[in-house]
Amino acid sequence: MVTVRAPATSANLGSGFDVFGLALARPADVVHVEKADETTITVEGIGSQYVPEDPRKNTVGAVAEALDAPASITIDKGVRPSSGLGSSAASAAGAAVALDALYGRETDPEELVRIAAKGEAVVSGEAHADNVAPAILGGFTIATPEGITSMETSLSLVACLPDIVVSTRDARAVVPSELSLDDLVGTVGAAATLTAGVARNDPELVGRGMADGVVTPTRAALIDGYDAVHAAATAAGATGVTVSGAGPAVLAVCQDGTTEAVASAMIDAFAEQGVDSHAYQTIVGQGAEVFV
User: Where does ATP bind (predicted)?
Assistant: First the structure.
């Protein structure tokens, strides 16, 4: 048996739609695999009742097929489905790394990212790598069709997950198909600022670079209480706040020592809107870890 811990992730980070991703130290999925004649899937943990165990409908089944690595696979969900924290990506990434180790393939990590992205297509309809890249490689990642760049960074974060559901397909449906030249210039500038902030471990620059007037407003409208939570987190000391992935989780970048105050403010703001939530105080994490 091979066991892999695969982290939750936050994609987009405001200005990096379908490109930027960040691994979180917590929460995480744990994937166990054993060789078998055909692939079977068992799902346990948070929200497991909403995850199909049919290999044809599960991200992990697509990964096993792509690797030609049949196995008995058990997924212990620590990342809630439809959370905006890369739940399907954590499972797909964990399975890709675990099956590769189980069969001794020693596949290049970037190729494993592409394989795990095929699993993502089962959920979102598109094989995008913005979540699976950090789930496998860790840190901050830039995923484009030309390749993947990964960078280590040190940032304090709060991921606040409200007790509501936003599906990835619904969140993609509201994304504008066109943007103005001014919006393009603003997005490029913000993305460049965020990248510089990551390289410098500078939460102020990262927060400034999360600003986005194109995708984020359309997705924020799907999250009850988002504006109030954004304002509360900022008032409590967050340097930047945005929708995590497709939502409904809200991600805040913080100065060291302020995560507790920011987390409390975000929970209270959701509560004032009649929404229960849970906040993960975390940091930028590592990629998938193998335990044999």
Answer: 80-90
Q: Is 88 annotated in some ligand binding site?
A: yes
Position 172 scores a pLDDT of 78
- Does the domain at 156-283 match CATH 2.60.120.280? Answer given as no
Average pLDDT over residues 233-240: 98
The answer to whether the annotation marks 82 as part of a ligand binding site is yes
pLDDT at 171 over 80: no
Distance between CA atoms of 187 and 11, rounded to whole angstroms?
15
Question: Which residue among the candidates 168, 193, 195, 259 is catalytic per the annotation?
Answer: 168
For 1-17, what is each residue's pLDDT tens digit?
A: 999 999 999 999 999 99
Q: Choose among 289, 236, 220: nearest CA to 2.
A: 289
Mean pLDDT, residues 100-129 taken together: 88
* 120 catalytic residue (yes or no): yes
- 7 prior amide bond cis, ω within 30: no
As a whole number of Å, the CA-based R_g of the chain is 18
Partner residues linked to 290 by β-bridges: 4
**67 class by beta-carbon count within 10 Å (0-12 exposed, 13-18 middle, 19+ buried):** buried
CA 8 remoteness from chain centre: 5
The response to whether 84 counts as a known ligand-binding position is yes
23 is in an annotated binding site: no
Same fold: 2-151+285-291 with 156-283: no
Backbone angles phi, psi at 145, to 5 degrees: -60, -25
* pTM (two decimals): 0.94
Of 120, 242, 259, 282, which is the active-site residue?
Answer: 120
Q: Could you tell me the residue ranges of all domains in the chain?
A: 2-151+285-291, 156-283
Q: Token match 């990590």: residue?
A: 109
